[in-house]
Amino acid sequence: MQSFKIMVPGSTAIDTAEITSPYDGSVVGTVERVDDRGAELALNNADQLFKDRSRWMAVHERVAVLEKTAELMEAQFDKLVMLALSEGGKPYTDSQVEVARAIDGVKNCVECVRSEHGMEIPMGINPASMHRLAMTSKEPIGPVMAVSAFNHPLNLIVHQVGPAVASGCPVIVKPASDTALSCFKFVELLREAGLPEEYAQAVVVSSNDIATDMVTDPRIAFFSFIGSGAVGWMLKSKLAPGTRCALEHGGAAPVILAEDADLDAMLPLLAKGGFYHAGQVCVSVQRIFAHHSIAEEIANRLGEMANALKIGDPADPKTEVGPIIRHQETDRVAAWVDEAVTAGAKLICGGAKISDAFYQPTVLLNPPAEVTLRKHEVFGPVISVNAYEDLEQAVAMANDVPYSFQASVMSQDIDKAMYAYRRLNASAVMVNDHTAFRVDWMPFAGLKESGYGVGGIPYTYEDMQVAKMLVLKSKNL
Fold first, then answer.
1. All domains of the chain, ordered by start, with CATH?
2. Residue 246 pLDDT class (50, 70, 90 cuts)
3. CA distances (Å), 304 to each of 247, 267, 350, 436, in order?
4. Which of 145, 151, 338, 367 could form a disulfide with 220 if both were Cys (CB 3.0 to 4.6 A apart)?
């Protein structure tokens, strides 16, 4: 069990929060919490640091901290895996992938510093701009407030905190209360690598009102949010004037399967994309729209794959599906599946709780359009398959939700793939791959209710800076 002290310099803790395993409820660690006074101190620390330009870290110092942090993470790889696994419940092999991604993400932050730069603005192209040279350089935008989600307890923190360190912004990060340990550990490693304490402060607060007050404080220059749409949009509506933001919510990712798709190659991808981390991924494969000639075959074959998955202890390297983060979420998933079956969906496999923490990997055939899991993000191990007659109908069904994130089309016909690409409401369309594909340097943007702004490490790094222009006037120009 790992315990973390308060990470707000000068503050004192009000109590200690226990972090429990979603697998068996055991206490896996503790973090100290702050109240409104601690929150105010964290904001003041970040604000005073940013205002005093003599305390700004030089670029080479930020690079050194990030490079050393990556080295420390590599040296503690197995410990980071077990820490993330214990609090989040993601199976061992998938947690290994997460930690590897997080380390690569820190290195990506270094690459951003090395490659991103200002630009020259053309002058001398009309009489008004004669005898001038103009250029931009990058400066940190100011204090960052980051609020994160539970499902990738280390990698999401890297995506929010790493770019802040790279850009020179003081950052306050509030992790999900269920998975605070990996966040506190990452901030601890940054400090061990030489980052001054005020530059990165991890906080767990005693109430949601305090968190809201921190996010909406006028001293915050940029707000980074990963979590539910209801919370994200509410917080955005309350931001102080001038505070910029990026919101990453969820979706109900659609896949269109054409009749000529290579099912032997595609179905394993769909099963992985739907049941990975028990479906608790914002771009999980959730809604498959398959040509009517193959829809039932696809559902049955996915059901066979689902039944073969090993469910259980996330620490077991053989486990493929772990627990759902909270017991009430298991109940919600069960209610949504029951509603769909009652409304006429054919239950191919699963459809029942295994325990308070586990829900069977489930495949449904032809759930009606009006049921909840056809309209909203299920965030559980459930895949629905619906038949369509033609691509126009498939696209219409895929787009019939208030979300727009990542989507997929599977076909051997380039014209069919491009038809779907052009017409799907999505910020990214995968061709012959599942909807959850992501590398951390690509843009990752939720549109409509799925989010605001663009995620991905280079894009977050860009958001956390301002382009400051310099104009030189000289008769010799």
1. 2-249+450-470 (3.40.605.10), 254-431 (3.40.309.10)
2. very high
3. 37, 11, 10, 21
4. 145
